[in-house]
Amino acid sequence: MLTIDNLSITQGGQQLWEDVSFTLSPGERLGISAPSGFGKTTLGRVIAQWQAPTHGQVLIDGIPPAKTGYCPIQLVPQHPELSFNPWRTTGDSLRDAWQPDARWLERMAVNPNWLKRRPDELSGGELARIALLRALDPRTRYLITDEVTAQLDAHIQAQIWKVLLEETHRRPLGLIIFSHNKALLERVCSRIWIPGRKQKSPHGDGSLPPLNRVISF
Ligand SMILES: Nc1ncnc2c1ncn2[C@@H]1O[C@H](COP(=O)(O)OP(=O)(O)OP(=O)(O)O)[C@@H](O)[C@H]1O
Ligand SMILES: [Mg+2]
Fold first, then answer.
1. Which residues approach ligand 1 with their CB closer than 6 A?
2. Distance in Å, CA 87 to ligand 2 centroid
3. CA triplet 132, 149, 109: central angle to 5 degrees?
4. pLDDT tens digits, residue range 125-164?
5. Rama region for 147: left / alpha / beta (φ>0; ψ in -120 to 50; rest)
6. pLDDT, tens only, 34-80
7. Distance (Å) from CA 162 to ligand 2 centroid
8. Cα–Cα distance measured from residue 209 to residue 21, given in angstroms and rounded to the nearest whole number
9. Top mutation candidate among 7, 10, 11 for ligand 1, by most atoms within 8 Å of CB
10. Using CA of residue 80, residue 86, residue 90, residue 96, what is the dihedral sign?
11. Which domains does the chain carry?
12. Do 77 and 132 touch, CB atoms closer than 8 A?
């Protein structure tokens, strides 16, 4: 169980989030949609341990994730090109995490030749798929995607979401999906949270109050 416990985040002098609490079970798929600049990316970074909150904590099964070693909460960022070392091939960066086999490359629509190139030699959509594949390391228990499939065409997007949903069932993997695309969220999420500025503080009992709908996939 992933627990977001009373998280507050102030950044650049703005309070983006105040006392946010919710839980996510393995296998659950939570969609979060809010306007541009609201703080979605920042919240994702904090949950994935990329930056510290101003207040509050993130727990896995009741304890904070270890500060060293592989983090079981992985974030695929909105701009995946920024998460690759520009001087190394994407394959080397991928294999720092794990060694996906040919079947995995096929599932994620990754051409093996792309792994011989540096990130600036690939399109945004190609790199997004490699970033997703890297984050699907078998040690990942919770995956956060930040608008990451927005740059893929509809056909590839459908294929990638099919794989991600299969993983939510198989591992099971908990998913947090940040997106402006409400149609996508309605299709893939089991819960959708649309926080409002005046209503952004969930109850603190593990529920999400501004929960507009609950949909089973
Ligand atoms: N490193 C930073 N220092 C100061 N302010 C920042 C920093 N990064 C982002 N911000 C500001 O924090 C706010 C939230 O940014 P964030 O990227 O989390 O929003 P978002 O909801 O993901 O937006 P979008 O939908 O456009 O991706 C914005 O006002 C942004 O300008
Ligand atoms: Mg963002």
1. 11-12, 16, 34, 36-42, 78
2. 25
3. 55
4. 999 999 999 999 999 999 999 998 888 999 999 999 999 9
5. left
6. 999 999 999 999 999 999 999 999 999 999 999 999 999 999 999 99
7. 23
8. 10
9. 11
10. negative
11. 2-78+141-214 (3.40.50.300)
12. no
Amino acid at 100: P
Q: Considering only CA atoms, give the Rg of the chain.
A: 17
Joined together, the tokens standing for residue 142 give 């919770």
Q: What's the predicted TM-score (pTM) here?
A: 0.91
The DSSP annotation for the chain comes to: -EEEEEEEEEETTEEEEEEEEEEE-TT-EEEE---TTSSHHHHHHHHTTSS--SEEEEEETTBPPPSSS--SEEEE-SSGGGGS-TTS-HHHHHHHH----HHHHHHTT--GGGGGS-GGGS-HHHHHHHHHHHHT-TT--EEEEESTTTTS-HHHHHHHHHHHHHHHHHS--EEEEE-S-HHHHHHH-SEEE---GGG----SSS--TTEEEE---
Q: How many residues are present in the chain?
A: 217
Tokens linked to 113: 């030749």
- Nearest ligand to the CA atom of 180: 1
Rounded CA-CA distance 49/84 in Å is 18
